Amino acid sequence: MLHYGRYYWDTGVYFRALNRSRVESMGYTSGDAQFQVGSSVYKDKTMNSDIKVLRASDSNPDNNSVQEEPDNIAATPKITWRSYVWDTFDKSPEERRFLFKLDAVVLSLASLGYFIKYLDQVNINSAFVSATQIYVLRFFIGLAESAFYPGMQYVIGSWYRKDELAKRSCIFHSSGAIGSMFSGYLIAAVYRLEGVGGFHGWQWLFIINTVISLPIAIAGFFLFPDVPEITKAWWLSTEDIAMANKRMDLEGRAKRGTYTKAKFQKIFSSWHIYTLVLLYIFFNNGSGYGSQPAFSLWLKSEGYDITAINTYPTIASAVAVLFTYLYAWSSDTIFRGARWPPMVFAGAVNIATNASLAVWDIPRGWKWASYILGSISSGISGLTFAWAHEICGDDNEERAFVTASMNELAYVVQAWLPLIIWQQVDSPRYHKGFITMVFISAALIATAFVIRFLHRRELARKRQLIEW
């Protein structure tokens, strides 16, 4: 059965209104279209006999039958104490099996890929070759890896629901910190291989990294599933694919569309792109000392040997991984999907540690603590992307464009900011750098609160429309 008539559109939800002036007065655009009835989300839901709500994904002009959908997925995920351990424990057996396969492939490939990305990055920085060779090699490495992180975050946001999203995004992100930590031990080990087989130690780094990376790349080629509506992954059954699409429908995650002039106008007229990009710029440039080896340089200035300089900073990486998991689990469970509380906490810790290092003449034990705790804000990256997926979830093109812009523009800023505030001549005190981190962290907290306010207002506006 198909409905014909005038429908009203806003961020992926259509409204059929008999009282046209009431909806148009709120600024919604209208258009003639046909829609299939049968959404399990808004099925036969009529308010005041004049507005019928249908999901954008219910549009199906070429099919006159309602496709049977999986009935073993809860519209609102059940949460008991078991979900505080792992979110699949409260789901149906069918959904647990599906998520096990999804985690085994998507999450594993994402995490392993990001792990080896950081091995590549550290290897380049450690290679004792001519400057020209480093720049050329770094260019091609960067060209290959630049799209990996935002692309994987987009794919993760295309498969997982809100109660699952932060954990997967943060597990993926933490693999980078694990890669950095592992690289410290690897560098310390290959330092002893200097001259073995006629190779320098830095050459052994690349050999070992190739042995680790190549199997992961080959596995990704054969296993990676794309996104639910176009996947042809051999390891997913027809029922799995139907379940994946139903789960995204329940989340309001829109399917792929096309980029048009009107689409770009909509994206750039929304607060989403400006605030979320700003949030990620503050995160990316305000955590981990602007990607500078501040901890290592301080250890070097204190006279520690090469092994200590390469291994002690891995303590900070390990603590960062631990806090990444704490942020993810607390956001998905204790804070019931709220992403901003861990961001505020991380920003506050950043202010305290960087202000202490800016003073510099502080007790030695507190200086160690400041360097070790100064990296824990890096764990909120996954939360920023999870928040973006949820805020932009009902417009696929906006979600893709915004998440890509977050990553891209953050690194555009990172390309020049360290040249100003993390100058080598200031090492290891970096007074300008530490002071700047304090202000960037305060801006991160303020931006998180602004996004929280705007998002709540937007959700209230949508609820008001549905209640009419």
From TrEMBL:
Keywords: Membrane, Transmembrane, Transmembrane helix, Transport
Location (main, coarse): membrane
GO-annotated molecular function: transmembrane transporter activity
Membrane-spanning ranges: 98-116, 128-149, 170-191, 203-224, 271-289, 309-328, 340-362, 368-388, 400-422, 434-454
Gene3D superfamilies named among the record's database cross-references: MFS general substrate transporter like domains
Pfam families: MFS_1
GO CC term, one of those recorded: membrane
Entry coiled-coil feature ranges: none
Compartmental location: Membrane
Topology of the protein relative to the lipid bilayer: Multi-pass membrane protein
Record's protein name: Major facilitator superfamily (MFS) profile domain-containing protein
Organism: Xylaria flabelliformis
Taxonomic lineage of the native organism: Eukaryota, Fungi, Dikarya, Ascomycota, Pezizomycotina
